[in-house]
């Protein structure tokens, strides 16, 4: 049976669900790293490979900026880093014990793999009591968050690196907040 794109199941997390997921990530053995990983994937709408590919020289901690190298023919762009995120990065860097160029490393000092990120998200979701959470949901959650805040399609498109606005329209078309007040 074919399902139209607008009829598919909810594939993003609400603000409250994201808070639960991030709290679940903190409770793991590598809580600082896992929390930061999920926070950055959410805040910057990162795909798994984009997240594990972040290198230290992509971060400018003095100006609070992150260069996001987008994949899948998307547009790379510079994002601001919020204060709480910047503090989390600095805390993580203090305990990180390797000279590798990648931001996110495993306990053996090697770069994280896609499989490791899948596992981290699965464990954080279980800890938070959230069913069926997958990594790309964090990217969708970013898009829906921005749409719910009332940001225009073009800004969301640029932020997520979409070349074609039809990919971004999904976030603005299905967001229920835009229907509020129609009958007041």
Automatic annotation (TrEMBL):
It holds the Pfam family Phage_integrase. This is Tyrosine-type recombinase/integrase. The keyword Transcription applies. Keywords: DNA integration, DNA recombination, Fimbrium biogenesis, Transcription, Transcription regulation. GO terms for biological process: DNA integration; DNA recombination. GO terms for molecular function: DNA binding. Signal peptide: none annotated. Belongs to the 'phage' integrase family. PANTHER family: PHAGE INTEGRASE-RELATED (PTHR30349), TYPE 1 FIMBRIAE REGULATORY PROTEIN FIMB-RELATED (PTHR30349:SF62). Transmembrane segments: none annotated. It comes from the Bacteria. Residues 8-184 form the Tyr recombinase domain. The keyword Transcription regulation applies.
């Amino acid at each position: 049976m074919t399902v139209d794109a607008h009829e598919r199941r909810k594939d993003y997390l609400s603000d409250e669900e994201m808070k639960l997921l991030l709290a679940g990530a903190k409770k793991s053995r590598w809580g600082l790293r896992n929390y930061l990983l999920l926070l950055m994937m959410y805040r910057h709408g990162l795909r798994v490979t984009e997240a594990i590919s972040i290198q230290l020289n992509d971060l400018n901690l003095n100006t609070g900026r992150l260069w996001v190298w987008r994949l899948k023919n998307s547009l790379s762009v510079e994002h601001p880093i919020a204060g709480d995120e910047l503090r989390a990065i600095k805390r993580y860097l203090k305990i990180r014990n390797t000279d590798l160029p990648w931001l996110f490393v495993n306990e053996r000092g090697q770069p994280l793999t896609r499989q490791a990120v899948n596992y981290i998200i699965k464990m954080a979701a279980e800890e938070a009591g959230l069913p069926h959470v997958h990594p790309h949901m964090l990217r969708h959650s970013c898009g829906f968050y921005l749409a719910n805040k009332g940001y225009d399609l073009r800004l969301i498109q640029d932020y997520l690196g979409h070349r074609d606005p039809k990919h971004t329209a999904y976030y603005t078309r299905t967001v229920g907040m835009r229907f509020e007040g129609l009958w007041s």
